[in-house]
Amino acid sequence: MKDWIAGARPRTLPAAIVPVLVGTACAVGDTRHGIVWWRAVAAMVAALAIQVGTNYANDYSDGKRGTDDPGQRVGPPRLVGWGLKPAAAVKRAALLAYAVAGVAGLALALAVDVRLLLVGVASFAAGWFYTGGPKPYGYAGMGEVFVFLFFGVVATVGSAYVQSERITALAVGASVPVGFLATALLVTNNLRDIPSDTVAGKRTLAVRLGDRATRALYVALLVGAFVAVPLVGGLGGRPVAAVALGAILLAQRPVTTVLAGGRGPGLIPVLVATGRVQLVFGILFAAGLAISG
Asked: In which domain, by residue range, is 220 found?
């Protein structure tokens, strides 16, 4: 069980939790019937299940390709690459997680808008083909773009849409800092894995940019998230959202470590700290948006 929990990569789960919190908060005061809590719960279940399914799918695909060779990898253990679980079992776990997300998404689609099914299918495809399929986009340096879109824009705007049943400028604006922080998680991971990914032929954006530029990108994403807060809160008429700036206190240590040249195992705490920044930021941002609404 410990292996399965580790394979779900719990440190990445803030990327699924935060957009649902923020998107739901954007809908406060913007609905005829108030917040429908079962929809918020269903959106959270779908987001978490997609994240877990994607993590298992990546483990399966990377393991089959030999990218997660324990002799090269410096990050946490991987189920398939390290021989901890059979590849077929990990694939089934990914499909089971996607099935859970599908049930939650179907309920939302039937209650709100059947076009949400298309969003769900696109999300499943984005998760699977990140490292799966004949030409995985994660191996071509496009992972950060898709993370920003799906764990930022799509998840945040979608969570607001299932409540208000319309796309609002506030939700779109709020999705930007959410997407920045989700992308920062991936950048941290890929920065750590530049040496092993280079050997394995995995041309992530970090491999393409190089060590120094990737560190600058990480810092820019965190700075961009905090800079966006007063813009979103001010222009969206939700001034209390500025309380999210308090999370900047937690960002100092990971930013310092990255700028100081931390490498390999030394970047694992940065991943943990970045997830903590994202979660605290998301809770504060959502609370401020909701109170102002």
From this structure: 2-292
